[in-house]
Design goal:
It is a single chain. This protein is mainly alpha-helical and about 650 residues long. It folds into 4 domains: about 100 residues, Serine Threonine Protein Phosphatase 5, Tetratricopeptide repeat; about 80 residues, no CATH class; about 150 residues; about 130 residues, Histidine kinase-like ATPase, C-terminal domain (Heat Shock Protein 90), CATH 3.30.565.10. About 75% of the residues lie in helices and about 5% in strands. The chain has 25 helices and 5 strands. Strands 1-2-3-5-4 form a 5-stranded mixed β-sheet. α23 links the parallel β1 and β2. α5 packs antiparallel against α6, α18 packs across α19 and α19 packs antiparallel against α20. The chain is elongated and about 170 Å long. The termini are far apart. This is histidine kinase. It is an enzyme of class 2 (transferase). Its EC number is 2.7.13.3. Keywords: ATP-binding, Kinase, Membrane, Nucleotide-binding, Phosphoprotein, Transferase, Transmembrane, Transmembrane helix, Two-component regulatory system.
Amino acid sequence: MKPIKAFYLCLFLSYQIFSVNKNSVSTTTKNLKLKTLDSLINVTKNVKSFKDFTLQYINLAFKQNKHSIATAKILKLCSRIEVEFNDPDFAILLLNKLITHKKKIKDTYLLGGIYQKKARAYYDKDNFDKAFNNCDISIKNYGNTRKDSIYKADAIFLKGQILVKSNNFIEAIKNYEIASMYYENLNDLAYTFFIKTAITSIYSKIGLNEIAIEKLLDIIEKKIFLKYTIGLTSNYYNLAINYREIDNIEKYKENLDKALIHKKNSKSNDGFIPYYITAIAQYYLQYGTLENAKTYLNYAASEIKVNKANVISIDFFNKTKSFYLFKNNKPQKALELAKKTLAEIEKKGDLDAKKELNKLIFDIYVSKNDSKNALKHYQSYAQIKDSIANINKISVVNYYQTLSKKEKEEQLKNDKILLLKKNNKTKKQLLISIIIFTILLLIIIYLYWNRLIFLKEKKMQDRFSQKLLLAQEEQRKRISKDLHDGLGHSLLLIKNKIVSINDTSIEKLINDAIEEMRSIARVLYPFQLKGIGITSALDNLMRKLDKNSQTFIFGDIDNIDNLLNVEQKVNLFRVVQECLSNIIKHAKANSARVTLKLIENHHIYIIIQDNGIGFNYVEKLNEDKSLGLKTLNQRVDFLKGSLKFSCSKNKGTVIKILFPLK
């Protein structure tokens, strides 16, 4: 009786206060009225009285210019209106009154809160479009303070919930992730992990179990690292269910065990321990033995008796036990328990459980040959199954449609950005291209100029070398002629006088001197080129060198007389002479062969090879003392030909020379 008397006493005081003449009401009286109405609102349980007092309160607060106080009060009452009275329309009425005075409300968190509560009211009315719009306005009205961030995170989370209801899963996940970042920055671990878990539920719902598993593993890892155990049991259980959906039975069982162990260690008295024990029993019914299933069902039953189990755990236990009884050839007991459990679940709207129980009852009636009742429950089963399938199908289709639309929008956005970047960079690219082109052109010109200079210098060097060789040959020719005509003639006169006195010893010395002088003259200049021709001159050269050395020299020479001019003959002769001299001096060869071929009356091809010790052509050419090789190269250049050395250690040397006739 005391609460009733107190209520009527308050009502009487309220009447007395509001019956006073308005003109005589003081400020103190107005404040007293507001406080009285506030008290009446807090204690009243009558819906009509609650509404009347609330409207009087808000109107009086506006008259007193206490807009922020009125707003804070109404925002607080909205939760009560939602939970206790379930009247979203009245909440919207009050919030609209606040919006008409929003210019006088300075606090950003109050302004944002008005639209957030309005969004929640529309959400409760399933008017998701208006709920979404009010959520957006709410987010825009919140400021950047820490206090505002908390409410902004709530609004973004609500927006995500609205998008889930609208099957717009891509945007829902995006908003959940943003809200999660806000909560994480605010060090609100409870809401951070709650939203992250909600994201995994979306992925599970639309069949993206691999992504759900990945995210659940991440959540579990972070919780363990932070030693934050709230919700860890359900994380393990959800992880197990996702593994089951992808047929990873080993991981399914492993995480069921982890869920049960963690639940028992948490010492939480929420009545869910039997639930997780029953889940393991269900695993054994599907993938193990009936004996193991029985063990865990008995374990769950003892937990239900000893500790207070909640309704969800009891329904789940009864459902699982029904399946066990049917599999254990006890159809009548299974039928009775299944029907009883179905009746309980019908009140709660668990579609999956209703589907499973109707299918079980159908199977039991089929085993009992009761086709009438079997058909009835099969129809219920099929209807629920189709309903779940349609919901899942719509969810998945909406997800991928949204994803496709989002990808197209992103692609269009990216294309526009790329186009803008391309347009902005055109001048820079053109300028860079011009600079690069100019630099490359200067480099090309520089290289070309250097090449011209190099070719000119090489040409001058070749010309100088040729003139030097010609001058050397002329000098040798002159010295050879002087030796032959001068010294040679004098030696012959001396010889004739010695013959007349019949001194044989002196005559022999004179003959040797004459022969040596002739050899020197022939070496200095091969006069036989004019007399017997280049072909015979080369034959004579090989015979003489073969006779006067330890190396066996032979060859095969085509007739090339009358094909070369004087300079070509001299240079060809010198080339062969220099190659054979080098073989005799340095190769330590037993034999050497000279092959000279005339190729189609256009080219002369010479091969000179030995079986000596070989040498490194590049090293010898770069030595300061290798004058012979350098001269050899110069003479081949003079012939406009090519020179190639093939050397192998202890396998001899092959020299190949090719030059044109003209």
